[in-house]
Amino acid sequence: MRSVWLGRAALLVFTLALLYPLAGLFAPVGAWQWDGGVHGSTAAAVRVSLSLTGLAMLIDIVVGTPVALYLARHAGRDRMVWEAAILVSILMPPLALGILLSLAFGPQNSFGAWLLRLGVLTSNSALAFTATQVYVSIGYYIVAARAALAAVPFDLERIAALLGLDPWQVFRRVTFPLARLGLAAAFSLAWVRALGEFGAVLVTAYYPSGMPVQIWVNLQDAGMPAVMPLLVIFILTALPLPWVFHLLAQTRSANA
Amino acid sequence: MLEARIVKRRRPFAVEVELRLERGGRLGLFGASGAGKSTVLSCIAGLEQPDEGEVRFGGQRLYPPNLPLHRRPLAYLTQNDLLFPHLTVGENVCFGLGNGDREAAQAWVGELSERLGLAALWNERAREVSGGQARRVALARMLARRPPLVLLDEPFGALDLPTLNDLADAILQWQRKLGFTMVAVDHRAEILGRLCEQGAVIESGHIIQQGAWPDLVRSPATELTARLLGA
Q: Do residues A197 and A94 touch, judged by C-beta distance below 8 A?
């Protein structure tokens, strides 16, 4: 009994230490300034982050889910090669990735110059912003989605197929419902990763500024009072989605 | 007619089998565990691909090329029940019926449910039913589509004797009613003797004896078969 209480006390201390940084929200930094001196900049940053991160997530799901399904269902040696390649995008330091993206797609090389001739702006554009977010997040989505899809028994899918369902129907009626919480967790992970990306986006898409870059600009130009409002919005948009999915997953495993 | 010539190379021996079964026939594949019975059934079902051979049913070629699982005119009852855990018992039973089929199949599904005692469980989550109940649900789900070819892989697992007898009676009753062709696999002779009129004995991947089931029991070809048959 005593050890239980000791364990709880230790966990309480750990949790308090973990959450302590949130106390910074109540720090006396002066009156909050909503736009950091530039009218409408906070709203624009929120709009850019939410809309373009949403688009990046759509691409992550549409491209990443079939890749994750392939990796979950194939045991061959080639799977290890694909997984190793995907890990590169996860393990790459964000700033390094941003610089590499900028060099690889920038107008200074022939591919970037060709895209520019077609009217495709590969830096400081919505396209650059979205592409960078996809690069930094899709690896996380695929790895987590692969784990969720691999947990669905393959035999169940084959039984469904023998009951007359084509591959898309099997995915819709069996694979997806059984993997949905894991897929939601994968989505949350990718969402947080993309929304919070700073280093890579700073290099490829300083404009249009998303929330992380705008927070940095506000910090440089106007100090903490201009950072705080955007910081609160940033936390509120990043946190709830993964948090809810995590709680749902916990509830489900407790009921199983 | 079911015609299957299957060569499947695997360890420790290759499975090489040739089968012919008239439409509406009932064949029991008998042999020790690991003799290759389930491999034959899997190849007919399309879950495994033969290395060589040909599988035809009712004039339709199932292999080669490998016909996709969802286009195969067959139903397969696996050793494990494999119900869809996120669905209710009723949804599992009707799983293979298209929206258009459901109304037409209502009376038939009702008959299956009544005979197998599923009505009281209809709205239960499949993950919550017992092993014996799950077997009944899997059987009803398999038959709901009125398949012309039924494959049974150790269909009664570890069920108790009364349940086993009840399910065997139900299968025979519906086989007579629907006239489906049936291939059953088991290592227990009494189960196959009950379900099938014909038998084939597999040892180390080869059929060593086939014929009417009573003849197999009367005069087993090898000592191993005699021992397994309890003759």
A: yes
- pLDDT tens per residue, range A55-77: 999 999 999 999 999 999 988 88
Q: Is the ipTM reported for this complex over the cut 0.85?
A: yes
B143, closest residue in chain A (CA to CA): A163
Q: Which two tokens stand for residue B4?
A: 């299957």
* Interchain contact, A156 vs B80, CB within 8 Å: no
Cβ contact A84:A186 at 8 Å: no
* Domain enclosing residue B99, as ranges: 79-146
Mutate to test the interface with A, among B38, B62, B69 (most CBs of A within 10 A): B69
Size of interface A-B (CB pairs under 8 A): 46
Please indicate whether, in this complex, the C-beta atoms of A178 and B85 are within 8 angstroms of each other. yes
> Which CATH fold topology does A43-255 show?
MetI-like fold (1.10.3720)
Regarding beta strands B74-77 and B149-153, do their DSSP bridges make them parallel or antiparallel, or are they unpaired?
Answer: parallel
Query: B52 and B161 share a domain?
Result: yes
- CA–centroid distance for B93 within its chain: 17
B184 & B136 share domain? no
- In this structure, are B51 and B158 located in the same domain? yes
* pTM exceeding 0.90: no
* CB-based contact B98 A177, cutoff 8 Å: no
Picking from B72, B43, B199, the residue whose alpha carbon sits closest to that of residue B147 is B72
Nearest CA to B215 out of B201, B195, B202, B227 is that of: B201
Q: Are residues B20 and B132 in the same domain?
A: no
